[in-house]
Amino acid sequence: MEFSKLFFLYIFLPLTIAIYFLMPKMQWKNRVLIAASLLFYAMGQPLFLLLLLGSAYLNFYLAQRISPKDKGTLVFALVCNLFALGIFKYLDFFLGIFGVATPDGGVILSIMASLTKGVNALFGTTMRAPTSVIPIGISFYTFQVISYLVDVYRGKSCAQTSFSKLLLYLCMFPKMMQGPIVRYEQVEKQLSVRKTNPKAIFEGAVRFTVGLAKKVLLADYAGKVIAGLSSDISGASVVGAWLGAILFMFQLYFDFSGYSDMAIGLGRIFGFRYPENFNLPYVSGSITEFWRRWHMSLSSFFRDYVYIPLGGNRKGKGRQVFNMLVVWSLTGLWHGANWNYIIWGLYFFALLSIEKQILPRLKNRSGIVKNLVTMFFVLIGWVIFSHENLGELGSALANMFGASGFVSAGVGTRLMNTLPLLLVCLVGSTMIPRWISFVWGGIFSARKKRRGDDRFTLMRGIYALSLLAFAGVLLYLCTVSLVGSTSAPSIYANF
Amino acid sequence: MKRFYSLLCGILLAAMLGVGLVSMFDSDATFSATEKRALKAKPKLSLSALLDGSYSGNLSEYYADTFPMRETLMKTNRSLNNFYYFSALSGKDAPQVVINANNNTAAGGEALSDHQKPSTEKPNESGSSQQEEPTEPTENDAPAEQLGAVLLVGNRALEVPYANHDNIERYAKAVDAIDKALGSSVRTFNIAVPNAAEFYAPSAYRTSSTSQKDMIDFCYSKAGKNVITVDAYSKIAPHTDEYIYFRTDHHWTQLGAYYAYTAFCESAGLKAVNLREFETGTYENFVGAMYTFASEYPQSQILVDEPDTVYFYRPTVETHAKYYSDATLSDPITIGVISNVSEGISNKYLCFIGGDTPICIIETDVDGPVCMLIKESYGNAFAPFLTQHYSKVIVVDPREFNRDGKPSLDLAAFAKEQGVNDCIILNYPMVYNATGYTKWLERLVEQ
């Protein structure tokens, strides 16, 4: 299931929240969350629920046997998890590299199709064969498991002694599908004790609606325009190709950061504090800065669990370059089992390597220019990212630079139609919304003057009401839009 | 503040829960009048559907399709689209919106299928291009094929085909195959007609790959040597200041069909009846299928505000028309060559031979040969003119045969049985430029 479905918004979510808060004890609250999360997962891929439970139990079991002296168990556990990820996500890709012919749709898919057939024949059921074999969120799940196992090995955390708490950590529905990648140590205590207050819950709810609006009101519409452009004669010209590329840049950001906002907001409602995942990446003045602001939980994961263990920058220049190469190849591969993702990762490796040399010399250049240049390279990166077929990637890049003419039929109309959306996306990716919210809060002096000052004042009341109205309007507009069109499936759902 | 925040959280949760409860217990609509389609039905719970995940997927879709106050919210969404499809600054003659048209929309030609149940006496609503979504996978689930675009320009909606030469050639060959199958005693006419976009679209949409003149010329250049190609184009083109195409519908008017008929008569060696000789009449207030197609865009409102009028021309000869659900010609249903659609039927184009039926046979008091018209809905407005020259006009819709559980039809055998002398294959660009229809055309003689 997705957050941007009416069924989730008006049935699943309010019922879960209501039942959760009716439970008097934390133990019961946790049970509600686990049940809701498993149901949430089962509503997408019911049979993979068994896989999820099996994997969670295996990791629960193995982690208890990991000790700082025993690297063998850790390695075994890591191999098990990476093997599962590899089988489901990368098998066909690697077989392809070695020239092994695979059936249409891939090995696993055809095995699953035969299995379905067999089960149908045996039990007289009429199950449809799956169309996708990547268990939802497996990439996020695997990385969270790795952080857990490694942190236990490093002695940063103790192995969880309660299976249900580990399960809650691993399968919590707000972050199950698209992160953020929450490390075990970040929520370890919250699995047992969560202090929350109505203000935090309210803020979580507002945060959720903001994320929902980013996805439904911005990203999905950008996606619609892109789909229209890419299958039409208007898309190939320079104007069409750039319009499509810029919209994709916004779509990806608002989709993914919107999802993170929803996850963080939902987490807060239930008393969890998840790490921030995006910090206005499109205001960056360099590629280095961009990666400090984009998908932060992933880049910091690679830093702490790959780059630094490999020696980071402590083992000489040559080794550092090698370490970066490994990190960026993996970053690319993590995003998908295809060459374009690897090229995309290596593209950033190259950019970062060059930038390290020249950045110190650019200190005095204007911020806007640096930002524009950075965004140009980021945009080209997204074009690479968005084309799994390398031939199509080539022609997409060629079209951006004039291979199919400057304008084409209909592109003017599409550009005109999209202007307001582009403008909102542009403003929405800058500091401006934050400034507005800061000033708005300031007007009503909503911020606490000193700790513990929590009296009701008229101004604070009005401020809180304005937030409620804001969330209400966003939720209403999202509902209108969701009723108006079936929301596009999220781009990051397969990761 | 604590209590105040609790109150606000409570309000928000109560609102969402409230909507949720209402949505669970309200009565669900089954048909959307605006979209002209059946809404998703509640999925049936079964172990298989539960285990393969289709139950929850369908449940979620059903839920979205039958959300409380859906029609009102759809209207609001249309207003919201003023933001997403902004066109306030576009030029008067420029398209305000460009909508992609693929084979699941414009050229589907699926019937809403009253004619599966021959008890209905009224013309079936099958001329429209908006189709009921199939619940089981059918050929229409094939990957969408980009056929062209729909433009909203001024008070017109235009369907622009993008030339696909492989498809057009395949179509020309299919016509040739029919000609060969019918044998040398039957004359086969290929009439590829242009649609409104060729004359009323901005020039970027009627030149190079969107030039229908080029598409027709190419189609005819690939015609078999015994196929008689009919140059309807040059008979239609001089009359663009007349009412030859609807603005709110993708069809031509019967006047447009008349000019094509004069071209056909020239090719067939017949003398076209003068337009003045027909008794005429009108059906007012026709808001066509293009409006349904574009109704989510606020710019389409003008199509409702300025609807079309259907002008019809009644045959001067005596006609008796019946339609049938298959080639066994059992259970005939009587229909008018020009039916009365003045009340209760929104698709006024269905007045022509009752819309798209599998087989329609018109018998006349003319002492003449027999003709067979193979067509999509463009042929409906054309068929009445044929009655002036033939003792029997047999109208066949290839979309209704040899696929997806529809009856089978061996065209050659059927034509022989009916004593057909002339076979006319008439179609419009969104069809002869696409594979779907051509496939069905091929299957008529492939058995």
Q: Helix and strand layout, with pairings?
A:
The complex is a heterodimer of chains A (495) and B (447).
Chain A: H1 6-22, H2 26-42, H3 48-65, H4 71-97, H5 107-123, H6 138-153, H7 163-171, H8 173-176, H9 184-187, H10 198-230, H11 238-269, H12 287-293, H13 296-307, H14 317-335, H15 339-358, H16 367-386, H17 390-400, H18 411-428, H19 432-443, H20 458-484
Helix pairs in contact in A: 1-2, 2-7, 3-4, 3-6, 3-7, 4-6, 10-11, 10-18, 10-20, 11-16, 11-17, 11-18, 13-14, 14-15, 15-16
Chain B: H1 2-25, E1 31-32, E2 37-38, H2 47-51, H3 54-65, H4 70-84, E3 97-102, E4 146-153, E5 156-161, H5 165-182, E6 187-192, H6 197-200, H7 212-221, E7 227-229, H8 233-236, H9 254-268, E8 279-286, H10 289-294, H11 301-305, E9 308-314, E10 319-324, E11 333-335, E12 359-364, E13 370-375, H12 378-386, E14 392-396, H13 411-418, E15 422-427, H14 429-432, H15 435-443
Parallel strand pairs in B: 6-7, 6-15, 13-14, 13-15
Antiparallel strand pairs in B: 1-2, 3-4, 4-5, 8-9, 10-11, 10-12, 12-14
Helix pairs in contact in B: 5-7, 5-15, 9-12
